[in-house]
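Input:
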Amino acid sequence: MTWYSGEGGLSGLVHTVGRITDDVRRVRRGWHWDTPRPHTWPEQGAVVPAPASDLGWARQEPVRSIRYLIQRGLLLPFTEVMAHPKVEGREWVRELERPVIFAANHSSHADTSLILHALTDRARERTVVAAAADYWFKRPLLGNIVSLFLNTFPFSRTGGAQAQLHSSSQLLKSGWNLVLFPEGSRSPDGRIQEFKPGVGHLAKETGTPVVPMHIRGAYQIMPKNQKLPLPGPVRVRIGKPMSLQPKEGSREFTARVEKAVRALATEPRQPDLQGTWIERWKASKPRDLRYED
Amino acid sequence: MPRPGAVIEVDRNTPPTLFHYGEGVRLEKLPLGSRIVYPPDPLDAIAHPERAIKRALAKPLEDDPLKSLLRSGMKLTIAFDDLSLPLPPMAAPDVRQLVMEEVIDMAAEAGVEDIHLIAALGLHRRMTEDEIRHIVGERIFSTFWPDRLYQHDGEDPELNVYIGKTADGEEVTLHKRAVESDLVVYVNLTLVPMDGGHKSMSTGLASYRGIRAHHNVKTLLGSRSYMNPPDSALHHSCIRQGQLIEDTVRVFHIETTVNNHAFPAIANFMQKRETDWTAQDQAMFLGMKQMTDLAPPALKRSIFHAMRAPYGLTSVHAGQVDAVHEKTMEAVRNQLSVRVEGQTDIVTLGVPYLGPYNVNSPMNPVLVVCMGVGYMFNFYRNKPVLRKGGVLILTHPCRYEFDAVQHPSYIDFYDEVLADTTDPAEIEKKYELRFAEDPWFRQLYRKSHAYHGVHPFYAWYWAAHAMEHAGDIIVVGGEREVVHRLGFKSATTLEDAFEMAEQTVGRHPSVTHMRMPPIMLADVE
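Output:
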């Protein structure tokens, strides 16, 4: 009999509450909630993490529509006001026919919003962000909120190549673009750090092109250990998509992507990486309108 | 079928007349028997601008098709007019964007790798990135800005090349990139008859050295008017310079014209004759009048300057400069011409909030003179609507208000030069060179968004002809001290102005009100 089944009336309810109270009391005593851990107990082992969730709910409707509204109404206007980002090379991400990996330098928490701001609506709507599992998903509530806003998924920085590959390659294969920061963590001084090989592994495993991106100015907005952002100018430079050459190893490819991101940081434009004007002009051609009969 | 322009005589049933009053509007009752000249209705716009542009480029006038002029390995430069045209700025997409996209498409197909786009500013201010983006569109901006799309700098000693002298001794300079190019494609937008033709290159890509050949008091006094090129010494000088440029550089000229649909739906009453005002137009007028009476100037300005005109393309021609410009003038006259019989003792003009040199800034007193006494007075062919010695009456608040970023030299011009004299010839002789060569003004012109140091002089010279022609100039509703500094008379109301005018033109004068904008060109018989 349950208290809400309608049987037993008030006496039933009292009975149920009493039972729950007894259970809680028993557990409290058994596990010494109000006293120190008994020294006779064996030493505490490593905490075994719960199996990671890939936060599939964040990529389902109606969450996608809610995120669209949040991003258009809050995130993008806020980014625009704070950074007034200048984007070069948007034509390379306008008409993406297949999923790509966006590989960018990482110096600030603002990087993700700046990358999303630089994308077209169409590309942004199909983009997931790899977020460090041991940082963003340590607290489930925070992880879920960030996923709602930015469409992040947990990306293990410590689990080796196979662990990194699994969920990311599944997402790429199911049509999602992936934002990845190959440095692994935010730069402590704003300079680009060495790239970890994950981006190359992932590109090789899935045959996905990599779009190199360089963000300049994000470190001044919100460097590591700063809690609140400060306004400042930002430039986001997007390079031509890069694909693995025949017989090219994943580590060589990672090195090539790193070199491209470093080159994008330099002035002036880099036609080799950003494309000649003719290539960019053709890439930015609007789609022909097709009228129904 | 759009109505042609009209001249209406004021009778007892005529509704009050709309007068522009800077960032505001007024209704005025004109004396019985006065004439009101209305511009023609907007001509029908071309339904498919892209197709018309493609056709013009494929079948140019007295020139080869553009496609045949483009080849891989060549140096191509596209120059285009700046934001001083059209007014108000055009609602996106700007016709210059449409034309340039076609040209660039062709260049891409032909594999022209070396291509530059230059905003032909002349001595105007540098535009902001957003202003350039508005003219060229996002696609061109993101592909070329800032290394291949940039603005002319008339003060860069290395980028301005002296290319020679005309038979009349006018020096000609040109942007170095244009001189070194195998082909220069000029993309123009002609709003009024003084624009376009050889004037585009000879002023847009020139330096002070070349521009001063025709932007001077003598030339402008010899231009009756400079809105009618055949009678304009200014244009004759530009043509001589342009011919020298054509001998030096291979030019492919593209000119476009738009109709005079100058106001968006929110200000539709400004577009219409008062007798056509519906209840909605009357309500909109009342709303705008109350808003402009009460709102602080900055708010009013932001509202007015946010307006974008729904102009429609009426013609596009490409090819050799003279052949193209002849067709363009025909299209402009079709849109703007109004037949007006005879001259008049008094002409009234409502000076609006915007002129070519104050896009996104207040119209300072010197620019009020440039706009009202300069441009608006000169919208005529054959002879001015105002008889020699007649009275010109303007309505404008004429505040002591300057934009320190865009018009720094205007401030000194007003405070220092006009305090001494308002005579254009004397001003030119005593002060022009000092302002033109001032290193601080030069720096602001090159690196900030300031008009060139000499620009207020040119703004003043535009008015030289009207100042010489009119017996008196009265400003209604202006700040008295400012109006006196400009050398004019100040009146509180239009009635007062008429009374003051009687002292110059006698009792029972004839009055004509030129109901602009939208702009028109009075064909005075």
